[in-house]
Amino acid sequence: MPDAFTRTIPIWCAVINRTLFADVEDASTLHLMPTLTSDSERVQVEAIMGDLVDSFKKLGLDLDLLRGRMKRPVYPCWRSPALGQTSPKGLDESTRNKFSCLWLLMPSKYQTAATPESYDGYIQGAGDDSESWAHGLTPSLYWAHREVLLVTSEEQLPDLVLSLRAEEVSMEAAWTMKLAPFPQIRLGVLPASSELTGSGLTIICAPPSTSMPKTDGNRPLLHLKCREGKLGSRDLRAELPKVSTFVEVAKKRDSYDVCILCASGKDLSVGVALAIICVYGSEQGKSCKTSFRPAL
């Protein structure tokens, strides 16, 4: 069971409950995975819960709005092939009716064998790393085409997913989303073949072998060499220092915008955008152009 399921998500459920639903009985209880966390660990987590709640409040979020949208506190429940269904301790039926359940599902089996040969080809954790087996299937793609996916044979699924993904990518515009209150920062999907024009800056997160789109002389391009999936996140940490020097070019330009592209427009490009906003943006959400800070 991943640490995110046994500890991280349950801890933040408790933080959110204590912040938004302090008046609800039992809402402040910390619910960790009963069989995989010790009493000692629970005590250690409880010791820092106050600091986590304070940090959450300092984010400046509209807590009344969040409470209105959530409506009820949330508690985690777990399900996996080896452990079956597991609920937090101390929750009876009357208590459950006051909460919303957040299901944490893990398809991987739990193996205790000592030698690789006894795993029979099974790789621990592979069921949780969707990039290893999903062929590009995303939650949004699944829900949009779930009827046809559920009736397709297992042998035909990979080709179907690839075709659906290709259709989805072909319909996505190169420029997909502006980030309010920073309209000069845009996130987009990396086009297979395109020419980028106009003034501004382009940052592309893609594997080293990726062919870069053509650009005219008015649009400098920075290629951050990042692999796809989790490995790309690690690569991005080493590549981020290049962004600061590149973005400084914007101070010399009359028309300033930064377009950040990656394979999905929702992964590595978001990380780069957040880095730029954290370093150059003000707490009031002012334009990055007038809010430059020291380099990354």
Q: What brief labels describe this structure?
A:
globular; 36% helix; 296 residues; five-stranded mixed β-sheet; 16% strand; alpha/beta; 10 strands; three-stranded mixed β-sheet
Number of helices in the DSSP assignment: 10
Order of helices and strands: HHHEEHEHHHEEEEEEHHEH
Stretches where pLDDT falls below 50 for ≥5 residues?
A: 114-122, 289-296
Oligomer: single chain
Strand-pairing-aware structural class: alpha/beta
What does the average pLDDT come to? 76
General form: globular
* Termini separation: 35 Å
Describe the protein's architecture and organization.
This protein is an alpha/beta fold and 296 residues long. The chain has ten helices and ten strands. Helices cover 36% and strands 16% of the residues.
Quick recap of the structure?
The chain is an alpha/beta fold. It has helices at 3-20, 39-57, 63-70, 93-96, 139-144, 146-151, 157-171, 230-239, 241-247, 268-280; strands spanning 74-80, 84-86, 100-105, 177-179, 182-189, 195-196, 201-206, 214-215, 221-225, 258-262.
SSE diagram, text form:
Layout: H1 3-20, H2 39-57, H3 63-70, E1 74-80, E2 84-86, H4 93-96, E3 100-105, H5 139-144, H6 146-151, H7 157-171, E4 177-179, E5 182-189, E6 195-196, E7 201-206, E8 214-215, E9 221-225, H8 230-239, H9 241-247, E10 258-262, H10 268-280
Parallel strand pairs: 1-3, 5-10, 6-8, 7-9, 7-10
Antiparallel strand pairs: 1-2, 4-5
Helix pairs in contact: 1-2
